[in-house]
Amino acid sequence: MLDETPDLDNPDYMLLRLGRRLRKRQGVLEGWWMYYRGRPPLPELPKNAEAAFLDFQRKARTNFCGLIANASVHRLLALGVTGPDGTPDDNASRWWQANRLDSRQKLVWRCGMAQSVGYMLVGPHPTRTEDNGRPSPLITPEHPSECIVEHHPETGEPYVGLKAFTNDIDGYGYARVMYDDRSFPYRTTEPCGRRLPWGPDSWEYIGDQDDGEPHDLGGLPLVEFARMPDLGEHPEPEFACVMDTQDRVNLGVLNRMAASRYSGFRQKWVRGHKFARKVDQATGIKVVEQPFTPGPNTVWVSEGENAQFGQLDATDLTGFLKEHESDVRDMLILSQTPAYYYASDLINISADTVAALDLMHVAKCREHIASFGEGLEDVMSLAAAQAGVTDDYTEATVRWADPQYLSPAVMADAATKLSSIGYPLDVIAERLGETPQQVRRISSSAAAAKLLAASLLPANPAPTAGNVDEGANGG
Length: 475
Hints:
The chain is 39% helix and 17% strand. It is built from eleven helices and 15 strands. It has helices at 11-36, 50-59, 65-73, 90-98, 101-115, 243-264, 318-334, 351-387, 408-420, 425-431, 436-455; strands spanning 78-82, 117-129, 135-142, 147-151, 158-166, 173-178, 182-188, 203-205, 213-214, 222-226, 268-271, 277-279, 286-288, 308-311, 397-400. Helix 2 crosses helix 6, helix 6 (243-264) runs antiparallel to helix 7 and helix 10 runs antiparallel to helix 11 (436-455). The termini are far apart.
């Protein structure tokens, strides 16, 4: 049985504590994920209409939460890591490319936007090694349904991390409690399926050493990327502030679909006709026999003396459409998403208008960049420690692509003006969003071109009696 003595340094206690927090968070994560995928709870109708409208309920869901989350993910792209002076770092570039962070970083940002938090785990690579013989760093994106971090109550810094998952091959659950200098592996006592148990009798320690497996990374291997948490609050997904509005949009769509369907064919009425009645064989109830069947070649005839036929007016859907546009506009405003994502009546808008609509969204993305950049610096520091490199990456700089979209003409004009006031070419290339490797290549190519041009210039003529200034000789 595991030791449940409350202590942050007790791995048994932290396994159960973080595991139970992980299980408690599962339901919330699942709810956010359903909103992100466009499958929130079905809009509700009166009880007596549920059966008739069940198909409508499924079709009424319109996924704006996924659009809001991805609008931010599309603007977040870390280009690489440079040294404190802005020069590209060869080791960091190599680790970056070897772990495919150009594409895998998007998995973490998307988890952060859709599930409130994402993770990166740093450890030894099983096959690749460095020149010094140490295993190369392995950097993997991790999902918040399998990872969680406990922060120190005094410093607020990440102190203990947990990675827990089910092995689909043998059916057992595996977990690892991680500290900044060692980790503790566990396994469930019996196969458990996808839902992990978190009782003290459900897990057993499987490490070779009682005091854990040491590592020399100098920090918690599990790095958390939380989406803009408020002070003292847990982080929330990008669309958390508009989930109620998303439900309202779905309900409005459902009402419009119902009105559209039942007014698509104008309802007919008959007055002054005597209907026959018959007994329903299944229920024994007398029902009206309907002789009038709509059809393009059908003529309705009644023997009643004062029989009249007519039809009701169609339902006007304009109010539903205006309500829908208003709700969607509220969602975009509250989530600080540019209005042109829902084009509506925005037609032939200028570049200045786009920039104005982008203002709040770009500001929000820059907040994400500031937060996630700190996490990437921690990841690079852990990778350096794993590779046995002594460089201090806490002073490194994470280069990000500009979250503001500018036309090539505007960017070229800005670069020309920066060059005219003396900005170096490598700084201008950085502002244009080039990667550190491209900046180095551009600078080298420009220097080589200048050197070649200088070598092709004619040499200055040697001084002769005819071109020497006589005044210099006192003449």
